[in-house]
């Protein structure tokens, strides 16, 4: 199978095949597509979580339940740092 790959991708493909990790270009492509599909599921799940949080915030704002923004932003940043460091 011939694919028009950039030099960087061609080198990566050659390295993966030479390592013996993958036995054919087809096998390597399938693994790449599976990884892409998994990543898309993760992104979609996170998007749905964020969407839900935004909707909850909108409902609370309509009810007059508002929080001090500077404290909340610092808390959000801290949670994001913790989440990224645990991944």
Number of helices: 3
Task: Give the low-pLDDT segments.
Answer: none
The percent of residues in helical segments reads over 70%
* N-end to C-end Cα span: 36 Å
Largest sheet: none
- The proportion of residues in beta strands is under 5%
Radius of gyration (Å): 22 Å
Summing up helix and strand content along with how strands pair, one would put the structural category as mainly alpha
Task: Give an overview in words.
This protein has 87 residues and is mainly alpha-helical. Helix content is 79%, strand content 0%. The chain has helices spanning 7-19, 25-62, 69-86. The chain is elongated, with a radius of gyration of 22 Å. The chain starts with 6 loop residues before the first helix and ends with a helix. The mean pLDDT is 89.
Layout of helices and strands, plus pairs?
Layout: H1 7-19, H2 25-62, H3 69-86
Quick summary of this structure?
By secondary structure, the protein is mainly α.
Task: Provide the descriptors you would attach to this structure in a database record.
87 residues; mainly alpha; 3 helices
């Amino acid at each position: 199978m011939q694919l028009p790959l950039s030099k960087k991708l061609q080198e990566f493909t050659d390295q993966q095949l030479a390592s013996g990790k993958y036995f054919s270009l087809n096998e390597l492509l399938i693994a790449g597509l599976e990884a892409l599909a998994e990543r898309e599921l993760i992104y979609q799940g996170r998007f749905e979580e964020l969407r839900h949080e935004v909707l909850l915030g909108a409902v609370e704002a309509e009810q007059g339940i508002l929080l001090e923004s500077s404290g909340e932003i610092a808390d959000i940043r801290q949670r994001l740092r913790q989440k990224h460091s645990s991944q």
